[in-house]
Amino acid sequence: MAVLVFLALSSGVTKMMLMQQDVEFFGAYGFTTPMIIAFGAAQFIGGLLLIFQRTRFFGAAIVAITFLISAVLLIMDENIPFTIFTVVALLFLGLHMKLSLAKHQGAT
What we know:
By secondary structure, the chain is mainly α. It is built from five helices and no strands. The protein has helices at residues 2-16, 20-27, 33-51, 56-76, 80-107. Helix 1 (2-16) packs antiparallel against helix 3 and helix 4 (56-76) runs antiparallel to helix 5 (80-107). The longest helix has 28 residues, at 80-107. The two termini are 24 Å apart. The relative contact order is 0.14.
């Protein structure tokens, strides 16, 4: 879980700080500066929500959506290593969503 939180938070921060690599990559696919900042903010907020058991499902869902968008763009960019890395993170996010949902349903 800690790795997913770190990935979400660090990915969000780099986009909110408008790191050149992120601006160039996302800009090539039509993302404007405000869109990149909002995308990064969503990742950051999702990462924060991942920390707490009560909000983990929603945090994982938010981060998964942003990582899915990134994966699609990475595939379009033919960047296979980062695509694989992102898909693995998506699988772990999905697992955490499933476990979080099962835990929540078992508590009711």
